Write a sequence for this structure.
């Protein structure tokens, strides 16, 4: 059985489709409310953030 060559021809790549709604401006991220906790994850410091105006379900690291 032959091995597959791990190089792709540039012609085979597809361009990303354009934005379906031109001129659309995305909403800015919500302001953080409180930092609830901190942890080391894969040797990086992460903070548990409570977002202002959102419930506890939306807390994120």
């Amino acid at each position: 059985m032959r091995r597959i060559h791990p190089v792709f021809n540039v012609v085979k790549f597809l361009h990303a489709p354009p934005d379906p709604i031109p001129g659309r401006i995305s909403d800015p991220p919500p302001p953080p409310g409180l930092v609830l906790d901190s942890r080391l994850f894969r040797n990086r410091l992460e903070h548990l953030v409570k977002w202002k105006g959102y419930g506890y379900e939306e807390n994120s690291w």
About this structure: The beta strands are 32-41, 44-51. The radius of gyration is 21 Å. The mean pLDDT is 86.
